[in-house]
Design brief:
The chain is an alpha/beta fold and 221 residues long. The chain is built from 6 helices and 11 strands. The chain has helices at residues 10-21, 34-39, 54-59, 75-87, 119-131, 209-216; strands at 2-6, 25-30, 45-48, 67-70, 93-98, 115-118, 136-142, 147-153, 174-181, 184-186, 199-205. The strands form 2 sheets. Strands 3-2-1-4-5-6 form a 6-stranded parallel β-sheet, sandwiched between helices.
Length: 221
Amino acid sequence: MLVVIAGAGSVGCSIARELLAHGHEILLIDPKPEVIGRSGLRGARWLVGDACEISTLKEARLEEADVVVSASGDDKVNLVVSLLAKTEFGVGRTVGRVNNPKNDWMFDDSWGVDVAVNTPQLMTALVEEAVEIGDLVRLLTLQTGVTSLVEFTVPAESHVIGATVGSVDWPQDVTLVAILRDEAPITPTTDDVMENGDELFFITTIAAEDELRKLLSPHKH
């Protein structure tokens, strides 16, 4: 998979490092040539230039990219890159980094963003996930703000312990996509029995989150 990353700061380089380790082809675009040597990345291609300029994106042959990641520290840049990637180059998937949570509402399909990653919000979610056993935690907002990835850690007193996945009347627009147990991921089937400490991951519409929360925590006030 060819992934173009606009912005080679710490976030962009971290993403690139992970993707390279998984065998993907990476092109990084950044206006500062000094970031190339500083990054320590091996195997990535580089383009020095302004990713908000059509000429730079043409030089990057953006139309060949499978995914474009806008990872700069400037929300305006990330929105412009996502919009250009979609409208001018027909890129199939765009991921936009949100630096200021107040700008989160703009990162949707009107600006060409398929997935918005709100870094402070994600960090908060991961902190909450570590401590909020028994509560539903939103990890990511997907698909133009309509759908989310949420996590629920089953507490010792939960009524779902011992129940099979298929026996629970999950709300409409909620899908259990994974169970993490003893640090091993399980693809859930209707016969899987839920246990204390299981981390349940759901794809859900944001509108259905409250119903899911009530179902999982019926005695929580």
